[in-house]
Amino acid sequence: MLGLLGSAALVLVAGAPWVLLAAADGEELEPPEDVDVYIVDDNLTLKWSHKGEPAGNVTFSAEYQTDEMENWLKLPGCHHVTGTECEFSLLNTNIYAEMKFRVRAETGKSTSSWAEVDPFIPFLRAHIGPPGVRLEAEDQAIVVDISYPGRGGKMWEGDTLRFQYRIVIWQRSSNETKTITTSYYTIKISKLLPETTYCLKVKAIHTFRGKHSNYSAVQCINTTEASKMPVPENIEMDALGESYVLRWDCAPADVSFRAQWLPNFYKSTSGSSPDKWKPIPACADIRTMQCVFPRNTIHTDHFLLRVQAFRGNNTSFWSEEKLINSQKYTKIPPPIVAVTPTRDSLLVYVSCQDHSLSKCRKLTYEVVFWDKTSNTKRRVVKESPEFTIENLQPQTVYCVQARVLSFATWNKSSDFSDALCDATRPGNSSSMNWILTVLGTLFFSALALYAGKNLVKCLNSEFFSSPKPPPSIDEVFSEPPSKYLLFLTPEEHTERCFIIENTGTVAVTGGNPSPEGEHRKYTSQSSQDSGNYSNEEESTGSENSQGLRPQGCPEHSGPF
Amino acid sequence: MIHKQLPEMVLLLLLACSTVFSLEPKLILFQSRMKRESLHPPTMLPVSSVQQCLSHRKNFLLPLQSVSRHQYQKGHALAVLHEILQQVFSLFQAHLSLGIWEETHIERVLGALHQQLEYMESLAELKAEQSGDPSVQRLRIQIKAYFRRIHDYLENQRYSSCAWIIVQVEINRCMLFVFRLTGWLSKQETDP
């Protein structure tokens, strides 16, 4: 071992002059400066500057390391490069882990020291590239199909819902622009002129990180000549029982219509909406400008509808898309009203009857109440489900009914609930009420204190009891802790009873109840004695406790 | 196929989430628990299928510790919930075209997820996050990384049946975490 160390030392001593020489050779080779990383989508560009050596003689190499790696790895495409930048794809790296980069200059056999970039998380440093844009022309509309920045890459794959897109559109012959902001990936810009050239550009905005991309390259497209087939307009929908009624307008012509629907979420996903539109069977081929279809045709709450006219093989362009929130057409059930009367007021509690409580948000209740004898109704509007109607007459019957006045953002109401009538309490007994209240409070406090004390006792005995010996030992020293007897479960109470005689002996009755006459022998006094006896056992651990334990009683009783 | 059951768990998630922000938090907790119980059986995987796939197991490193609800405020918890919903949406949506699930079923799940996300984004706490709180960003990054591991695993396993079963078990695990989080959020509603 010593020999090995000795030879290693010799090698080091012998090698030292060579190291020094190499350093002297590379003394003038400066390391790169101003090393910077620029990330757009999944593409990383490493840039640096270098001074001194004439261009061409010096090359540069870069390496990277993530916090999951022990060693530095050569950066693909960044080895012996002659320029002052190189590119690297982040597709196969963990963009959520910290990364480090370093670059050095090399010439012949000598190399500079490494110039390192501070560690960073690529995802947090990445810029957003412009979105992809594809255009399709109609006679009076342009369909813009957007793909999220760096589509196919991993940087924004999990953030596609976070993007908004700002579309700027203008007629080529004019400077007047129109801006549209949308979170949809396919959008139809309508009310345009036929046979006209329109240009547009789109940029992406990451809504949470507040980052904007650059605008996409300007693209122009000509709208087609005016179509002879009329396009349905003014799409409206309504609900009729368990059906939806879809209506639209269309220039009179001998045409048929078909309607389709699309789950709304497809509009927020890149590239999937065009072929996901679904036919509505009841509206697949109709001659009227309305159609009725069952609600269960549609299986998402938010959806879009569109209508097309056709005659033989000639079809019109699709109408504008109408976004529907089916909640708007959901009937609100009347609320449930509960009333607690006092001397001169009614405490009213109104609750939403809808089973999905999320639908009970932001409700306003209209409450109507009246003296049953007069029928003069008074009306209040409350946002809180619990409130008090004050200044009422004592000992008078009042009736209350309520309805849901608005439902989330929809301006609609439910039917009134059934009237609930109750009498206010007698009038001149306020002092009596006080006394009763005080007495009641005292009584309940005492009860609570007693229950609390018992609970603490239970917890102490359960959680802080001394460790139990193994069953084998337990059998030998069969001395069950008497505390279990104090905490018999209700089940055990029903199955077995302890009957304690005045003499102190114990009899156990099983499932068979004793004759009534026998029960009468035992006084309540004797039972109390038994309780005290048990308590003493617990504290002293007396051997006599054996006598109180029924045969076959489970060792551990109940949930305590 | 067994993995057709996968989105069921997401419905549970939605039930849990949809009840977080309504008026009666006490009831909500109860209700979400009840619904979880009543919906649990269909999501149970046959033991035999799980056993067959044991060799495919992988630790996806659910960031339980760092996103533990005890350490954060309501805004943080909401961000975690929002990020998980968003990532679950992306996971299913990305594989929608594989035809793994019945289309109607997966559309219902994605529609509900999308609605839930839209609702959450209208909340003041999440809007405030747009200014970019670094601690919230770190949390979001950890969840993104977790779901990236799931995506990569599926890709490496060529979306095999076993891979989907393993992912289903993992999503179930993630949902249990989400239930805890929604429960905690409901409690925050009671004692703001």
Which short descriptors sum up this protein?
heterodimer, A: 560 residues, alpha+beta, five-stranded antiparallel β-sheet, 18% helix, disordered N terminus, disordered C terminus, B: 192 residues, mainly alpha, Growth Hormone, Chain: A, 8 helices, globular
How helix-rich are the residues of chain B, as a percent range? over 70%
Q: Determine the structural class of chain A based on helices, strands and strand pairing.
A: alpha+beta
Classify the beta-strand content of chain A into a percent band.
25-35%
Given as residue ranges, the uncertain stretches of chain B (5+ residues, pLDDT < 50) are: 1-6, 16-44
Note the beta-strand portion of chain B.
Answer: under 5%
- What spatial form of chain A do the alpha-carbon principal axes imply? flat
**What is the average of the pLDDT values of chain A?**
77
List segments of chain A where confidence is low: pLDDT < 50 over at least 5 consecutive residues.
1-26, 466-560
- Tell me the overall shape of chain B: globular
CATH topology of the domain at 67-191 in chain B: Growth Hormone, Chain: A
* Category from helices, strands and their pairing of chain B: mainly alpha
Taking Cα atoms only, what radius of gyration of chain B do you get, to the nearest Å? 16 Å
Main location (chain B): secreted
Organism (chain B): Mesocricetus auratus
Family (chain B): Belongs to the alpha/beta interferon family.
Protein name (chain B): Interferon epsilon
Q: Can you describe what's shown?
A:
The complex is a heterodimer of chains A (560) and B (192). With 560 residues, chain A is an alpha+beta fold. Chain A contains eight helices and 33 strands. In chain A, strands 3, 4, 6, 7 and 8 form a five-stranded antiparallel sheet that branches. In chain A, strands 11, 12, 14, 15 and 16 form a five-stranded antiparallel sheet that branches. Mean pLDDT of chain A is 77; it is low at 1-26 and 466-560. The termini of chain B are far apart. Chain B has helices at residues 6-18, 25-43, 47-52, 74-94, 103-121, 124-128, 134-156, 161-190. Helices cover 71% and strands 0% of the residues of chain B. Residues 1-6 and 16-44 of chain B have low confidence and may be disordered. Chain B has a domain at 67-191: Growth Hormone, Chain: A (Up-down Bundle). Chain B is built from eight helices and no strands. Chain B is mostly helical and 192 residues long. The A-B interface holds A 94-97, 121, 123-124, 154, 157-162, 207-210, 263-265, 268-269, 272, 299-302, 351-352, 356-361, 363, 385 and B 18-19, 21-24, 27-28, 31, 86-87, 89-90, 93-94, 96-97, 104, 107-108, 110-115, 117, 121, 129-132, 137, 141-142, 144-145, 147-148, 151.
